[in-house]
Amino acid sequence: MLVYFAFILLIIIAISFKKKPVIIAAIGLLAVGVLDTGSFFGGIQAAFRGFLLTAADLLPIILLIGLVVAMTGMLKETKTETILIKPILKIKNAAYLYWLAGVMLLTFSLFLWPTPAVSLLGALILPLIHRSRISPLGLAVGLCIFGEGIALAGDYVIQGAPSLSARSAGVALEQVLRQSLPLVCGSGIIASLIGFRMMMVQQKKNIPAYVVADNRERLDGQKGEEQQKEFDVLSPIKQNHQIQKRKRMILALAAVAFYLLAVIWLIYGRLRGDSAVAVIGGVTLLVLILGTILTDYKTSFNTFGRHIQTGMKFSMEVFAPIVVISGFFLLGTHSGYENVLLHQGAGYLEQLAYKLSGIVVLNKYSCALLVMLTAVLGAMSGSGFAALPLAGGIAAALGQAAGISAVPLAVLGQVTAIWTDAAVIPWGFPAIVSAVTQTEAAQIVRLNVLPWLAALCFSLIWTLFSY
Question: Residue 353: what pLDDT?
C-alpha cells in the first residue's frame, strides 16, 4: 500500500511541474503488481490486465471521439461547417459563446449524461473554435463545469448519481435530491462565474493565429470564397474537391436532422451510457459516410479511409496516456483490486479511507472533511461515479458513529466526487473535453483548480451550516 501511495505522490508532483506522469504510472503499476503478487511474472501480467481493463472501459469513448473528429474534418473540408455554425458565428462576443455552449451542454448532459453529450456537441464545438474568437482552453473550462460539474453533481433527470449515493448511505432518494439542490446550484453558479472570468483572462492572453485569421476574414465582410480559402489555414482543400453549394446545404440539413432524431431517440428511448454512446457514434458515422459520398463518390473510397485514420489517430494520441494512468489508479478501487491483482476486498484508496475514519475524532467538521477526502481519493480513478459507493458508505458509517445525519454527508460526498472528476483529474472528464476541443488535458486541469476549490468550499460550508 505504501508503494502505491508513494507513486500517487510522484504523479501529483509530476503534474504540478507540468510533466506527463505516464511513465510514473506505468512503473507504479508494474511495481505494485510485482510486490503484491510476489512474482515478477505475476506483476507483469497484472500490469497488462490493468491496461486491458482500462482500455476496454475507454474504447467506446475512444471510438466515438475518433468518429466525431473524422466527421468534423469532413465538414471542414467540404465547407459544410460554415452553414452549420453560421447562426452562432453572428455572436461575435466570446462571453456569449461561453454561456451558450455551457447551457447547451448542461441541457444535453441532464438527459444523456456528460460523455455522450459532449461528444454530440463536439460536432459543433470544433468548427466553433476554429472559426470564432473564443479561446479553446477557456471554452474547455466551461464545458467541464457545465457538462459534468453541474449536470452530474445533481443528476436530477436520470438520477443515477443520487440513487447510488442514497443506496450506499442507506437513506431515501428524495432526501438526497432535496439536500443536494442548494449545493449543486450554489457550487455551479460560483464555479461557472470563476470559470467565465478565467476564460476572459485566457481570451486576452492567447488567441491562436488561425482564429485571428479566420475572424479577420469574417469581420472584414463577405469577400467571396476565394479570400476565405486564403485565410482558412485549418481547412486546406484542393479546388477539384469542392462540392457545389446545393450539396453542402443537403449535407448540413441531413446532419442537423440526424442529430435531432438521435436526441429524440435518446430521450424517449431512455438510452443511457454505452447505449447512448452507440447511438451518437452511429449517427456520426452515418453523417461521415453521407458527406464523403456527396463530396465526390469517385474518390470516396480513399477519402473515407483518410478521414477515419485522421480521427482515430487523434483520439488514440489523446487517450493512450490516459489508459496507462487510469490503469494505475484502477488499483485503488474495489473492481480494480479484484480484476487486476486478483484479490478479494477493498482497493488501496478505499482501504486508506476506512483507516482514516477509524483514527480521527469524529464531529460534523471531521466527518465532512473525511467524506470529502474519501470522495476525492475515489474520483482519482477517473470516474466520479466509482467514488459514490465508497463516499456513501463512509458517510453512513461516520454519521452513525458521530450521531449526526448521514444525508448531508452523502450529498457532500456525491458533489465532491463528481466535481473532482469533472475538473481536476486529467484522465477523467477533462480528457474527453480536451479531445473535443483539441487542447491539453493538463492545461484544462490547471485552469479548473480554482473553480473546483470554490465549488468544494461552498459545498463544505453549506453542509456544515445545514446541521
Answer: 66
